[in-house]
Request: fold
Amino acid sequence: MWFLLLLLAGIAVIVVGADWLVRGSVELARVAGVSDAFIGLTVVAIGTSAPELVTALVSTIRGDRDIAVGNLIGSSVYNLTLILGVPVLVANGSGPIEDLLLHIDLPLMVGVCLLCVPLFLTGRKLSRREGSLMVIGYVIYLSYLLIART
Reply:
């Protein structure tokens, strides 16, 4: 029973913390006058992924790497299917999508996914170097967004 209470408390803290992070960041970004696409690609993406990041870090530190990988893959599949699909069903279509999202961000996302395949197949382990390259790639992408879209 105690573990169930801890689980529920942990979920509540993660959800509330992510909500506060996203709301505060979106408000700051709007005050700064950046576009909704920029907010979605940075602030909201980071804020809604924060629980996965924390869960992955904690489970990796504890030696439960399978939970970390399962969490990341599961949340990605969940986000791409249910979270993307349900609003489109409810709104009866997605509405207009910015050209930059279609011609730059979406192909970039597909390309990064394809680049990850060899990383995951090389001994089924990622090195610190490969992890560093992933983080550097994301920092470069965020820098591009800051320079080109603000």
